Amino acid sequence: MKRVLWLCTLIAAVWLLPQTAAAEEAKKTWVDKLQLNGDLRYRHEFISSEKYSSSSKQKARIYDRNRHRLRLRVGLQAQVNDRVDVFARLASSTFASGAGDPVSTNQDLSGGSTPKPLWIDRAFVEIRPWRTITARAGKQPSPFDGTDLLYDSDLNFEGIAALFTRKLGAHEMFLRGGGFWAGERGPDGFSKHALTQGHFQAQIGGKVKGKKLSGQLAVSYIDYGNVKNNPAVWTANNGFGNSLTPISGRGTDTLGYLYDYNLMNVNATVKVKLNRMEPAAIFDFVTNGAAKKDPAYDKKLNTGWLAGLSVKFMKFPVDWDFLYNYRVLQKDAVLGAYADSDPAGGGTNYNGHRLSLGTGLMPGTRLAGTYFINTKDPDNKDAQRRLAYDRVQVDLEVKF
Predict the structure, then answer these.
(1) Quick check: 240 pLDDT over 90?
(2) Residue 166 pairs with which residues in a beta bridge?
């Protein structure tokens, strides 16, 4: 009799559990399914650019620049069901080439106090068909791990992505891939077929976690399509440091990329958890194999790397964080249009240091300062073609 009672109880529980979950889901109003978040950052920035003399021992000032900038981002997450979410975010950005800047959400405070525009910064759907797999479609944050050596942190890809993650106890392995679009070229008077510019990326890696020591390693392959001998992905005739050439059959007025961009990227992080400190060593390396294989390649530069150290200080007497890195980003190592917009003014073809120090003033509020010390066109044999570029940023950021 007891066995029959237990069996009936088990069957009832199995049947009622999804019914109860469905009932609880039905009770949720549309307000319960929405989450609002965002941040506001006020920045004062000073930029100085100097030209080296022929002896490289003295510099001549080119210009100084002081400006105040604002960044506003407001995001919304809507839960469709347990496996589907929709994300949207509006953000400020500087008006450039008929639209917002894809690698910056900063808005200059100028123009006689005129109103500032907001743009669609993100808009994507996220589907989780299984616990280990996530799929995204739309304008989304980068699904790949890494530093800002390849992509500016403000860049949001447009396309589809799939993420596979497998937990192995305290450790983790992951496989990620996606196809992203930048624009459509043609058909026009020079081409009978429409060519879609964009890139595909695949990444494999893993994370290991111990009591005090943890680390991560990720390897990526990035293949850009229809860029060689085609216009820049945005802002006409601007390669942001990349090698350009007149496009075949279009005269000398229209410039396009001289090389293709097929990149191999390796990045690694090692962290140590101490009592009141958490130091981490960071390394990132990228090389453009397509440029080296190109018949037009004449030993131009196609490699980039970043090495640095970050430290989090807990309760000294408040929390602090420190970051230092040195990077080299050669002329055709990455696609310059998507590179970090802060060091050396953005793009490629520079090297230099970054130092950052920040602290939490109170919950949700942070004060930070960053100093970039860069040299533009550092490998140019003509010293007078090299530029010294210094940039100081002081940020007050509030998250909500």
Answers:
(1) yes
(2) 173
